[in-house]
Write a structure and sequence with these properties.
mainly alpha; elongated
Length: 698
């Protein structure tokens, strides 16, 4: 009987799977913790959260129904919508809660990657290395730090559960005891299928107990349900059935490509076994394509031809491989050049075809290379640009789950190379620690760019060329900061790169409007509408210019056009209500403001405008209530304090009115109107409190 080394006995708990999971979770949480202080971005976060009234009002029957029927943002992903609604119900409008939820999902996904690979192979440290690189690689910052990419980390969570439960099913269906699942599948580097896999495959079906059959059926069912939930979070998981077949080859050992007769018999059975998965994938593809066409996200062949899409697919794949090993200049979005240089195209095609051929040729000696490479390539197919969605050439977030395949090939390949070179274990450990540390350092450097829209898109402009989308979003950010000139400069730069960029023309029109150059603003908004007739924001902004010029009829027509395109847009409804208020059509104005608040309950200006309209109709209590709501949402607005003070004083509530005047002056001591109002209210109070003469009524 062999004696265990005392040191090994003292520290054997370091290699326990539970401890490894805790270490992975802890360091991932610490590394990404800064995201809890990051802001919402003006890129997709508006559509997913900050301007989406269904999300902002949280979980309720109406919003749950909307989540399952909506194809907003060009996707059908009801579970993603429900998760955002749950955030709003739990955390309110703050971005901190959603950021932490994204991080926790990433931590869970890291643990699941380890448990999946360890359960399949029992290769403890190789599995831990894959999980660590998955967790800390800079390519995954985008998926974690961007609230809109909840769909990415959420779908990956269900996708990994799908693979984990399928692996349990596959092992149970071959007679592996419940308590030994994963233990007999230790792959051998010298044998394509692994010695354990061969032994497991030799078991007779008759040895499978009825309990194992029931548990195996349950595992399959849970796997299928998780797959459906993953597709309802993000349709990118459509290639999961293909990944299941790869796992059948290695490391599960259910399929041997080295024996044609065995493969010819087993492949149809294994494919048939996965028919329910393929059916769900097909349904998801159909629903997604229809949703994206309806949302205008799918680019036509005229916009980007099929040959150009194929070229981009190979070049993007090459770039993903490059960023795996050298993750620098990571940006959002990566501009699509339209036509790649022929050198890039040739290199991309040669690299992809060469690696595919190598994976096939080495499938017996290094089966993990076959599974890992085709896991990566297969999962990228839905997002590689063959069906072009959006204007980007690639995106870091698309690598979130596909990268696991490359990391498997790398980790197991490095172990095989180290074994053949007879490298000492200390050198292997040092190399693994350095590699993981470099990834963590890269992520730590990348995270600050995601602090806010200004940081993100300023970095994008530094790290990429001809990025007109980054110019557009940085322009919008600068407008919010009050830097009109800086914002307009980025509008100009965007239009220089892409003259047909409707967003740039809209943003330029906004700047011209703020500068009082109304005729030029009208031209910019008309150009934006010409480029995109369904651009509701352009119609609404054009209406605001006409309103400023007192062309009420033209303004009315523009607002109506905007509302036909976006009936639930609170901003446009508020502007239309303001038009009715100017025309003293108070009933119509109140209707518009109330509709705006139904869609966006925390719209401060709509509350103020509704209060003014109600005050004009004599509904003093309603007006006071809306002024107070506006101040609850924005307590530091001296003008609203002034409005409320006047209303209170005029309705005889002088003491309350004086308090509001004083609050307005606390915020702005130079506020002349508040000072005059306070003087008047104090005089009225003095008269009321003055002693009365004999026979006089007070």
């Amino acid at each position: 009987m062999t004696q265990r080394n005392p040191k090994e006995k003292d520290f054997h708990w370091l290699g326990r799977p539970r401890f490894i999971c805790l270490v992975l979770a802890f360091f991932t949480l610490v590394l990404f913790w800064p995201v809890h202080g990051f802001e919402f971005l003006n890129y997709d976060d508006t559509a997913y959260v900050t301007s989406n009234r269904h999300v902002l009002t949280g979980l309720n029957p109406e919003n749950i129904r909307w989540a399952f029927l909506s194809v907003d943002t060009g996707n059908w992903h009801p579970l993603t919508w429900l998760s955002h609604m749950l955030d709003a119900s739990l955390f309110g409008p703050s971005p901190a809660g959603p950021h932490v939820v994204n991080l926790l999902l990433h931590v869970l996904n890291t643990v699941l990657v380890f448990l999946l690979l360890h359960g399949l192979t029992q290769a403890r440290w190789r599995s831990a290395l894959v999980a660590a690189l998955f967790a800390w690689h800079p390519l995954h910052v985008e998926s974690v730090a961007w609230i809109s990419e909840r769909k990415d980390v959420l779908s990956a969570f269900f996708g990994l559960l799908t693979l984990l439960m399928y692996s349990r099913y596959a092992q149970g269906s071959r007679g592996i005891k419940v308590e030994d699942r994963g233990k007999t599948l230790t792959p051998s580097l010298s044998h394509p299928m692994g010695e354990g896999a061969r032994r497991a495959g030799e078991g007779s079906p008759s040895t499978i107990s009825s309990l194992d059959r029931r548990l195996s059926t349950l595992d399959y069912t849970v796997s299928l349900v998780c797959f459906g939930l993953g597709l309802m979070s993000k349709p990118m998981l459509v290639s999961i059935p293909f990944v299941l077949l790869l796992l059948d080859y290695w490391p599960l050992g259910r399929l041997s490509l080295a024996q044609p007769s065995f493969a010819a018999k087993e492949i149809p059975r294994l494919v048939l076994e996965k028919i329910p998965f393929f059916v769900l994938s097909a349904l998801s593809c159909i629903v997604t394509f229809l949703a994206q066409q309806k949302g205008g996200a799918v680019m036509t062949v005229k916009g980007l031809s099929v040959p150009l899409r194929l070229e981009n697919a190979f070049v993007a794949c090459m770039h993903y491989l490059g960023k795996l090993f050298w993750p620098v200049n990571l940006v959002v979005p990566y501009p699509h050049p339209g036509q790649w240089p022929w050198v890039s195209i040739v290199c991309g095609i040669a690299l992809v075809l060469g690696l595919s051929a190598a994976a096939v040729r080495l499938r017996r000696a290094w089966p993990f290379l076959f599974t890992g490479w085709f896991w990566f390539a297969g999962m990228l197919i839905p997002v590689i640009g063959l069906v072009q969605v959006g204007t980007q050439s690639m995106a870091d977030r698309y690598t979130y789950l596909p990268l696991v395949g490359l990391l498997i090939a790398f980790s197991w390949g490095a172990a095989a190379a180290a074994k053949s070179l007879q490298l000492p274990s200390g050198a292997r450990w040092l190399a693994a620690v350095i590699l993981a540390g470099m990834c963590a350092a890269g992520t730590s450097s990348q995270l600050p760019y995601w602090r806010d829209s200004g940081s993100l898109f300023s970095h994008a402009l530094e790290a990429s060329t001809d990025n007109y989308v980054a110019h557009d979003n940085l322009s919008a950010f600068l407008y919010r900061q009050g830097d009109v000139d800086g914002a307009m400069e980025h509008c100009y730069q965007a239009m220089q790169i892409q003259p047909n960029d409707a967003v740039a023309h809209l943003n330029m029109g906004h700047g011209l409007f703020l500068k009082g150059r109304f005729s030029e603003a009208i031209e910019s908004f008309h150009r934006a509408i010409e480029l995109n007739p369904r651009y509701a924001s352009a119609w609404s902004n054009l209406g605001s210019v006409f309103l400023e010029e007192k062309d009420y009829d033209a303004a009315f027509e523009c607002y109506q056009s905007a509302l036909r395109l976006q009936p639930e847009d609170a901003e446009t409804l508020n502007d239309l209500g303001g038009l009715f208020l100017l025309r003293k059509e108070f009933k119509e104005a109140i209707n518009c403001f109330e509709r705006a608040l139904r869609f966006q309950p925390e719209h401060v200006r709509a509350h103020v405008n509704l209060a003014n309209a109600l005050g004009e109709t004599g509904n003093t209590n309603g007006a006071i209530e809306n002024f107070r709501t506006a101040l609850r949402l924005n307590p530091e607005d001296p003008v609203v304090h002034l409005f409320l003070a006047r209303l209170l004083a005029d309705s005889g509530r002088i003491e309350e009115g004086i308090a509001e005047y004083q609050e307005a002056l606390r915020i702005n001591p130079q506020f002349a109107q508040a000072r005059a109002g306070l003087a008047g209210a104090l005089e009225a109070k003095r008269k009321l409190e003055a002693p009365t003469g004999p026979g006089e009524r007070k």
